[in-house]
Structures are given as structure tokens and as C-alpha cells.
Amino acid sequence: MASLSIAAPNFTTSFIGKKITFRENTKRQNCCFFRRSPRCAALSYGGNAPKFPRVSVWDPYKRLGVNQDASEEEIWGSRNFLLQQYAGHERSEESIEAAFEKILMTSFQQRKKTKINLKSRLKKKVEESPPWVKNLLNFVELPATEVIFRRLFLFAFMGGWSIMNSAEGGPAFQVAVSLAACIYFLNEKTKSLARASIYGLGALVTGWVCGSILVPNIPSMLLNPTWTLELLTSLVVYVFLFLACTFLK
């Protein structure tokens, strides 16, 4: 009898209010030794984890204790704080997570609705615009951001090259290379060399005319005195060639 009592002793504690065998007590102690978490702490005291007092609150913002105009960082912070405070109580954790997910879903739907409204407004403005504006927009497209930056870098390089060689000669060679690049890019989109050449030459002529009109009206104090009219006009041409080969269909 004495050997049986030593092998599996039973202890009664008034704090917990029930019998706990030596093996069960050892198992819970091992759990809390290897996993230092609030859940294990709750188990060591008989599962008396704190209960979230706003479990049944319908408004997800009030349940998390934040305002409706709270920032995303504030919502995340409240959610993490509450999960840490009421860890170990399954229903409380589920209630906190459900309120957080509902707020995220509402925010996503509002953003999606705003984008749709913006597209609808732009589409409505285009439909209400004059016929010549509609015809002009039919020749314009918005390419990928990567394509825009690549071509912007190319023509910016041509402009820098022209400025660096301004003392040696005019930018005729750089303008010719830029025109060839513009026609090449347009030919990739239109699949018509003739159409691409017309667009490229049109952009060259338009840029040169605009540059010849615009540059003389710029105050001389804003310009480098070593830059010639031909160089400044070529810089305007690079802008028009970039716009033509990037945004024209």
C-alpha cells in the first residue's frame, strides 16, 4: 500500500478546488517551463484566463477601443495589445480577431469604391468632352512605369550628351540618334514603319518650332550663357520625341 501511494500520489488544493494527480501537475509544469506564454500561465492556474469584456460589442471599432478615423497603425497596435492581454481565452481572441478583420474588410471596400468612383468620374468627363478631345485621346495610351522610366533615361542622356558637347559643335548627331530611337519605339507599337516615321518626324518638327518660339522668351538670367539657341531648341525636341514614342499609340 505504501508503495502504491508513493508511485501515484494525489494532492488536493483548495486554490484550484479539485484533485490533481502528480502526473498531471508535472505535465502542466513542463508545459509552462518550455513555453513561456500567457496560455501556459492560465493553465497553471486552472485555466482562469482573463475574459475580454467587449466580446458582444457589435461595432468593431468600439470592440477594439479605437475611433473610426483611427490610423492603420493605431488599429494594429490595439489589436496586438488586446491579443496579448487576453491570450489564453479562446473566445476573447476570436472576438478581437473578428473585429480586426471586419475593419480591414471595410477599409478595403472603401478604397475599392473610391477607385471605382474616380474611374467613373474620369470616364464621364471624357464622354462629356468635345469631339476633338475624344479623337485626340484615341491616339494616347499610358504604358508601364518601367517603360516610361527607360525612355526618359534615354532622352535625358541624349540631352546631357548635347550639353557636354555644346562647346565642340551642334547637337545634330544627338538629335538624329534620338529621332531614330523614337521611330524605332513607335514602330514596335504601330507595326508600321511609315506611320512611325510620320509620328517621329512630326514630333521633331513640332518640338523644333515650339523650341524656337519658347526659348527666346526665357529670361537670360535663368540660362547658361554658353548655351546656344540651337542647343536649347534641341532640348525641347528631346521632350517632344520622348512624349511621342512613349504615349502615342
Question: What does this entry look like structurally?
Answer:
It is a single chain. The chain is mostly helical and 249 residues long. It folds into three domains: 2-44, no CATH class; 51-129, Helix Hairpins (Orthogonal Bundle), CATH 1.10.287; 145-247, no CATH class. 69% of the residues lie in helices and 3% in strands. It contains eleven helices and two strands, in the order H-E-E-H-H-H-H-H-H-H-H-H-H. It has helices at residues 2-7, 22-34, 38-44, 60-64, 72-85, 90-128, 131-137, 145-164, 172-190, 193-214, 229-247, and strands at 10-13, 18-21. It has a two-stranded antiparallel ribbon with strand order 1-2. A hairpin with a 4-residue loop joins strand 1 (10-13) and strand 2. The longest helix has 39 residues, at 90-128. The protein starts with a helix and ends with a helix. Keywords: Membrane, Transmembrane, Transmembrane helix. The chain crosses the membrane at residues 170-186, 198-215, 227-248. This is Protein CHAPERONE-LIKE PROTEIN OF POR1.
Which structural class should the secondary elements be placed in? mainly alpha
Determine the strand fraction and express it as a percent band: under 5%
How many separate domains?
3
Q: List the secondary-structure elements in sequence, H or E.
A: HEEHHHHHHHHHH
Number of helices: 11
Summarize the amount of helix as a percent range. 55-70%
Cα-to-Cα separation, first versus last residue: 97 Å
Q: How confident is the prediction overall: mean pLDDT?
A: 76
For the sheet with most strands, the description reads: 2 strands, antiparallel
Overall shape: elongated
Number of strands: 2
Low-confidence stretches: 1-46
Name the strands of the widest sheet in spatial order.
1-2
Rg, Cα atoms, Å: 36 Å
Keywords: Membrane, Transmembrane, Transmembrane helix
InterPro entries: CPP1-like
Protein name: Protein CHAPERONE-LIKE PROTEIN OF POR1
Transmembrane segments: 170-186, 198-215, 227-248
